[in-house]
Amino acid sequence: MKHLVYAFSCALSGIAHTARTQRSFQIQLAVAVAAVIGGFVVCLTPVEWAVVLILVGLVLTLECLNTALEATIDRCSTDLHPLAKTAKDAAAGAVLIMALIAAVVGLIIYCSAIMRLAG
To answer: Which residues are identified as catalytic?
Structure first.
């Protein structure tokens, strides 16, 4: 049990570090909060909620992984290297792809829900 508590403590510490130090994570978290509030406003269906929450989780998870990768690269070397840049850019690109997909799917879901409410 002690190991499980320690593992959760480390995980929460990583999330907290990302939330404190990464502006993009802070923005994504604000968008996630807005998406949840908006979901209540437009009365999302259970399936719509599931999709929205999965997408939010994926974007935030990728941002944490991006932060971890950047920290690992920075720890390995402070020298500027083209491969380090490629790795960091690719990780940032992965976050961007997921965020764009989440935005498009979110637009579809929320527009559909608004149309449903409008009757």
So the answer is: 63
